[in-house]
Design a protein that fits this description.
The chain is α/β, with parallel strands linked by helices. Helix 3 (45-57) runs antiparallel to helix 11 (291-327), helix 4 packs parallel to helix 11 (291-327) and helix 5 (101-119) packs across helix 6. It is built from 14 helices and eleven strands. It has helices spanning 14-27, 31-34, 45-57, 70-86, 101-119, 136-145, 162-168, 191-200, 216-221, 261-264, 291-327, 351-360, 383-401, 424-433; strands at 94-98, 127-131, 148-152, 173-179, 204-208, 236-242, 254-258, 332-334, 341-346, 366-368, 373-377. The protein has a seven-stranded mixed β-sheet with strand order 1-7-6-5-4-2-3, sandwiched between helices. A four-stranded antiparallel β-sheet has the order 8-9-11-10. The protein is globular. The structure holds pyridoxal-5'-phosphate.
Length: 439
């Protein structure tokens, strides 16, 4: 690894420093080229300006201290109330703000474990069951919580196998995890059936709606067929839903939502055994930026329901255009999904060649490995960018079909780049962990 970079002895004028920051910013992936993966959800045009201004008003304010700040409490209360309403929580519903999907899933599983300790004290090695499609952060947070995750393979059409899921429930099972939609295949799991199973077997059902929580209600309003997934489903006790995805809040901003206070009571961990009295933060993290909450409050009021519905209409338009294009390109096909995620698979050639070709043309893409597909997070693109994406996809596939293109890109959610470009934490992780299995 390179030598440590040190704090400069003398400062530089702010203009000079800002020039360097802007130079670095200019090296980042241009918004349009990452719109279907890493740069999705970056505010655009007038919406972006509003979000920035609202964020800046609260820049530096700490969400840990909202108990001393009625104005901040109002921002949080109103955002959370709107969120609870969007997941059909009604007056009984409760919610907490978190830093992201990982923390929201962590909180859901943590409450599930605390509930099980009270209701199923005989279980000493708790397990959760989930379809294979469950997100990596369910596995990760379960590791922190010492919960064993039992996953069952998907059906052939990549939907959740409910029979296998029911059979996987054993004497140590404390809960079920569903997704709305799941990240790899874009399906909303059969949550009504999972809810019935949870009630029958007396299990906690947590729904990971990090992607869908703040977009599916609006897509449904536009006539899309979206299976039930929220508190309207019996048996659902907690939901993770990210404001910093389709709520368009700047990161970090997410919510964990509870059917009622009966579930939320397993969430809180007050601390008094230290020198400064009660310490009670609303979720796992302590200090938290208020800027994202102010920004999403502003957007929710600026757009209103109508604005979010218009945005959903725009997303469906992008999805349809890409689907139609793939249908007309020899060798490509898309998987049917619920909502805003999209997968492109290949028949007759290796999809990694498409990733490689698209990368050469500047596009940033993520992938699914089992089975192989390109993963798209649909966001609004300019007409020009959408046309360019489709034209490049067409050109790359024809290069592959004529045998001109041979370089494969990686289908992945992560990866290790060239050493001089990689973050040091990642290089260090690779050194510590040895050969990392890429799945
Ligand atoms: C279904 C799902 N759950 C959880 C997460 C984790 O969210 P975050 O990266 O905000 O922690 C993601 C991220 O893409 C996701 O798609």
């Amino acid at each position: 690894m390179t030598d440590l970079y040190k704090l400069p002895q003398q400062g530089q004028p702010s203009d000079a420093v800002l020039t360097q920051i802007r130079d670095l910013r200019a090296m980042m992936t241009p918004g349009d080229l990452g719109k279907l993966s890493s740069t999705a959800f970056q505010g655009r045009d007038e919406m972006g300006e509003l979000i920035k201004s609202a964020f800046n008003e609260f820049l530096g304010w700490n969400g840990l201290f909202t108990f001393q700040e009625p104005a901040a409490a109002r921002l949080e209360n109103e955002v959370l109330d709107m969120c609870i309403d969007l997941v059909s929580g009604g007056n009984q519903g409760r919610g907490n703000l978190t830093s992201g999907g990982t923390e929201s899933n962590f909180c859901g599983l943590h409450a599930m474990r605390a509930w099980a300790r009270e209701h199923k004290p005989e279980i000493k090695t708790p397990e959760i069951v989930a379809p294979y499609s469950t997100h990596s952060t369910i596995h990760k947070t379960a590791k922190y919580l010492d919960l064993r995750v039992v996953t069952v393979p998907q059906n052939e059409d990549l939907t959740a196998d409910m029979d296998a899921l029911a059979k996987a429930i054993g004497p140590n099972t404390i809960g079920i995890v569903a997704s709305a939609p799941n990240w790899p295949y874009g399906h909303v799991d059969p949550i009504t059936e999972m809810g019935e199973l949870a009630i029958e077997r007396q299990l906690w059902l947590h729904v990971d709606a990090c992607v869908g929580g703040y977009i599916l209600p609006f897509m449904r309003e536009l006539g899309e067929e979206i299976p039930p997934y929220d508190f309207s489903v019996r048996g659902v006790r907690s939901i993770a839903a990210d404001l910093h995805k389709y709520g368009y809040a700047p990161k970090p901003c997410s919510t964990v939502l509870w059917r009622s206070q009966e579930e939320q009571r397993f969430h809180y961990l007050p601390v008094t055994e230290w020198a400064c009295g009660l310490y009670l933060s609303q979720s796992f993290v302590g200090s938290r930026p208020l800027g994202p909450v102010a920004a999403v409050w502003a957007l929710m009021h600026h757009w209103g329901r109508e604005g979010y519905i218009n945005n959903a209409r725009g997303l469906l338009h992008v999805k349809q255009q890409i689907t139609d294009a793939c249908d007309s390109i020899e060798g490509l096909r898309t998987w049917p999904t619920h909502g805003p995620l999209m997968m492109i698979a290949a028949e007759g050639f290796n999809i990694q060649l498409v990733v490689g070709g698209m990368e050469q043309r500047g596009w940033r893409l993520l992938g699914v490995t089992h089975p192989p597909a390109i993963h798209l997070t649909i966001d609004i693109m300019s007409d020009d960018a959408l046309t360019a994406f489709i034209a490049d996809l067409r050109a790359v596939c024809s290069q592959i079909n004529s045998g001109e293109l041979h370089s494969e890109g990686l289908l992945s959610y992560g990866g290790v780049g060239a050493e001089e470009e990689a973050p040091k934490w990642l290089l260090s992780a690779v050194e510590i962990l040895g050969d990392i299995d890429h799945g």
